[in-house]
Design goal:
Number of strands: 12
CATH topology of the largest domain: Rossmann fold
CATH architecture of the largest domain: 3-Layer(aba) Sandwich
Structural class: alpha/beta
Length: about 300
């Protein structure tokens, strides 16, 4: 395999600390630029700084690493593929640095890696997981060593001799329903959300917080787009009765907006009520995924033991 080729692969790049992770990210970004591959990076501040210093002209789309924990992988894969323009025959390069401190459950991490392998097989993606052997949890590092089809070694992709196939059935994952909502019909929209969430198996107590944030997301999307009467939404369910069910609502806006973080008040005041709604809803997580032609608000309610 050529050292400069970008191919569909799910690889693990083990490293000793964030500086080395930044060097690996920079090398993969250079290769992506030569191949004309868009780059999406979920990395911490140190890795981002090294990448930008080494490749200052790289058109990288950066996103908070916590999104890798908050958003189901199948939805992320859809978003990654959208970075390719119409008719583009290449691949999207994705760099992932999973924040294990936010979700230390190794089995959930393993499931995410399995989902990533499936996504690479079905979509035009090349995904690199940056795993820290110095500061990462030993059980997580061991899991990563057995979950990635390919290992990065001195700039080369090598088949993983320790790859272990999954030993459990995959949880179900798929769309529950899609719709176009009129943001002016607030009461009807709330009834619609509640009905669909009940059909997805979510108890009434958990639905209230999720509907609160989803309602604000629809309102914000309308404000960003100039108060249109049609806002696209979708509900997706992941998990099963044994592991617990995560329900994610997607609200689409045609206008790009800033990324929301829990500790920073948004500079765009149109986003303020949405930001506050998440803060008063502890069982709900909110992520903003920028896209070429707008953004998506992903609002998730996880099983009680993960909230």
């Amino acid at each position: 395999m050529s050292a400069t080729t970008v191919v569909p692969v799910h690889r693990c790049a083990f490293h000793d600390g964030p500086e080395q992770a930044g060097e690996i990210a920079a090398e993969l970004t250079r290769r992506a630029m030569v191949a004309g591959s868009p780059v999406v990076a979920y990395v911490d501040d140190v890795v981002r700084q090294v990448l930008v210093e080494r490749v200052p002209d790289a058109p990288v789309t950066f996103a908070p690493p916590r999104i890798l924990v908050d958003v189901p992988l199948p939805l992320l894969a859809e978003d990654w593929a959208r970075h390719l323009g119409p008719g583009h025959g290449g691949l999207v390069t994705v760099l992932c640095q999973r924040p294990v401190a936010l979700d230390p459950d190794v089995e959930r991490w393993r499931c995410a890696e399995q989902d990533t392998t499936d996504a690479v097989a079905a979509r035009p993606l090349t995904v690199t997981c940056l795993v820290d052997t110095t500061y990462g949890p030993p059980d997580g590092v061991a899991m990563a060593r057995g979950a990635h089809p390919v290992l990065w070694f001195d700039g080369l992709d090598l088949p993983n001799p320790d790859l272990r196939p999954p030993t459990v059935l995959r949880a179900r994952s798929g769309p529950v329903t899609e719709a176009v909502l009129d943001p002016r019909a607030a009461a009807a929209n709330r009834r619609w959300w509640h009905g669909r969430l009940a059909a997805a198996g979510m108890p009434e107590g958990r639905r209230e917080e999720l509907v609160l944030v989803l309602h604000e997301a629809v309102t914000v999307a309308a404000a960003l787009d100039g108060d249109p009467a049609a806002i696209r939404v979708r509900l997706t369910v992941a998990g099963d009765a044994a592991s617990g069910t995560t329900v994610t609502g997607e609200v689409v806006t045609r206008t790009r907006c800033e990324t929301l973080t829990p500790s920073t008040v948004p500079s765009d005041r149109r986003l303020l009520m949405l930001w506050l709604a998440e803060k008063v809803s502890p069982a709900v997580t909110l992520a903003v995924l920028p896209e070429a032609d707008g953004a998506r608000f992903l609002v998730s309610a996880q099983p009680p033991d993960r909230a």
